[in-house]
Specification:
single chain, mainly alpha
Length: 143
């Protein structure tokens, strides 16, 4: 039930024969050959595959002159002899539509004392509430 059929035999192609080397014919004279002072010249192996084109480095980028910002132009509403300055914001001094001066109002001494008293009461109430909550949580853990 679990027998597999035999796998087909795959044969690999035989490698190509090595390239023929140039072999010098055997010497016909029996006289010893003088020693050569130069080493034998080695030939590079034959190329396998397509011939590739030689790699040519890309040309250098063109020389660009340094950036020089343009000179600011003089606005047409400033006279030629007067130096231009940046505009400065000035708040309005009169109420629109009524032409009455805007005077910052100073709160009275009584209003300042009332604010201070209200601040003290609120912060004391928050502190007391935190103190009571911590106190009762302590007894809840202990008990």
């Amino acid at each position: 039930a679990g027998v597999l059929p035999p796998s087909p035999v795959v044969t690999r192609p035989s490698p190509p024969p090595p390239p023929a080397r140039d072999v010098a014919p055997p010497a016909t004279t029996s006289a010893p050959e003088p020693a050569r002072s130069q080493p034998p010249v080695l030939q590079p192996p034959p190329a396998i595959g397509p011939k590739l084109a030689p790699v040519v480095p890309p040309p250098p980028p063109p020389v660009v002159p340094p950036f020089v910002p343009p000179t600011p132009t003089r606005p047409s509403n400033i006279p030629a002899g007067k130096k231009s300055t940046a505009p400065i914001y000035k708040p309005p001094t009169t109420i629109p539509f009524f032409d009455q001066p805007i005077v910052p109002s100073e709160p009275s001494l009584l209003a300042r004392l009332a604010r201070w008293l209200l601040l003290v009461l609120i912060s004391s109430g928050i502190g007391a509430a935190l103190g009571v909550a911590i106190w009762y949580q302590y007894f809840r853990i202990q008990g």
